[in-house]
Design brief:
Blueprint lengths: L6 H8 L3 H8 L7 H23 L3 E9 L2 H14 L7 E9 L4 H14 L3 E5 L4 H12 L4 E4 L10 E3 L3 H16 L5 E5 L6 H17 L5 E4 L6 H14 L3 E6 L4 H10 L6 E5 L3 H8 L5 E4 L2 H15 L15 E3 L12
Parallel strand pairs: 1-2, 1-3, 3-4, 4-5, 6-7, 6-8, 8-9, 9-10
Antiparallel strand pairs: 10-11
Helix pairs in contact: 1-2, 1-3, 4-12, 5-6, 7-8, 9-10
Keywords: DNA-binding, Transcription, Transcription regulation
Pfam family, one: Peripla_BP_4
Protein name: DNA-binding protein
């Protein structure tokens, strides 16, 4: 069994003699199975304690770079700050670079400034475009690990990704949509903030493929490029409703849900089923008011904790681990809403 600890240290941790530890490690026999387990447990304990020693006094300055509506970036900030105490004995400090929209060149300029200035890590939510992928490569070359958050850049030099299984989330939305619409006629409006965010593209693909398989009679009407902002979303939805009088339901992949509902109201149309993503402050209020049918949510605190751990591992402050698993998808209704995140 490979390990970095002297026999004397293992023996002291296990409360056994050095001779007994030596027999266990070298497989010489003559040792009870329970004693062998104590030796292996002592090695595992020493490894955990060594990790804690490596973390004591370490400060990780992490930059969070996001292109996202304010309501979601606010939720991410609150989730990270709520998780900071759980990362002790390490100390994580954060700098925020949030913007709602804009050309890729501006986002790239932010990433390049971080590469020149230095950082222990970047948590990044950005469109999957070549310019951003190249900037991630420059960060990696400068020794700055990048973790993608919520939406991935799979061909970039990022060290890992945290978020939910977006195709499964889209398929789940389609299943719920079909169940709740039942035999009522009507088409479904699918709304993306942008075609350049991979997570939204994957949600749309999961939704579309499942709807085609289970409900081929329903037409899906897509709108995009509203950036999840109410000001642009309203016009897109209102135009779609005027073009198609059969739209009766919404799968909101990219947000702007207050504007979407207002467009239905102003057009005098009913939205029979409305499924959205993420429990930001807008969706939380709309769900409580029974104006949304359900919100597909994943635990942002879990995602931010895993992202920070990936940064720490990239610096050798935590031992290697297996691949990061997708966050669990929660179907949240007005009757099972989780407690609000309170920043610590």
């Amino acid at each position: 069994m490979g390990h970095p600890f002297p026999i004397r240290e293992i023996a002291r941790q296990a409360g056994l003699s050095e001779a007994t530890v030596d027999r266990v490690l070298n497989g010489r026999g003559g040792v009870r199975e329970s004693t062998a387990r104590e030796v292996h447990r002592a090695i595992a304990d020493l490894d955990r304690q060594r990790t804690q020693v490596r973390l004591v006094g370490r400060t990780f300055m992490v930059d969070i770079v996001m292109q996202s509506p304010e309501r979601f970036s606010t939720a991410v900030r609150a989730a990270l700050e709520a998780e900071l105490p759980s990362l002790h004995p390490a100390v994580v400090r954060s700098r925020y670079h949030f913007r709602e929209t804009g050309p890729a060149e501006e986002l790239v300029a932010v990433l390049d400034r971080i590469a020149r200035r230095g950082s222990q890590g970047v948590l990044l939510k950005a469109p999957d475009v070549p310019e951003v992928t190249a900037a991630v490569g420059r960060l990696a070359a400068a020794g700055v690990p990048v973790v993608t958050l919520v939406t991935d850049l799979p061909v970039s030099a990022r060290v890992g990704h945290v978020g939910s299984d977006n195709r499964a989330a889209g398929a789940t939305a389609a299943y719920l949509m079909g169940q709740w619409l039942g035999d009522r006629p009507g088409n479904v409006l699918t709304s993306l903030s942008s075609g350049f965010f991979r997570n939204e593209e994957e949600r749309e693909m999961g939704f579309r493929s499942t709807m085609r398989a289970r409900h081929p009679e329903r037409t899906l009407v897509e709108i995009a490029e509203g950036q999840g902002l109410d000001a642009t979303q309203y016009d897109l939805v209102r135009a779609a409703l005027e073009r198609d009088p059969e739209i009766r339901a919404v799968y909101s992949i990219g947000g702007g849900n207050i504007a979407t509902l207002r467009a239905f109201e102003d057009a005098g149309r009913e939205c029979a089923v409305f499924i959205a993503h993420d429990l930001d402050h807008d969706n939380t209020r709309l769900l409580r008011e029974l104006r949304l049918s359900a919100v597909l949510h994943h635990d942002l605190r879990h995602d931010l904790r895993e992202a920070c751990h990936l940064v720490m591992r990239a610096h050798g402050a935590l031992p290697p681990a297996g691949p990061t698993l997708p966050s669990a998808i929660q179907v949240v209704t007005p009757y099972n809403m989780p407690a609000p995140v309170v920043a610590g």
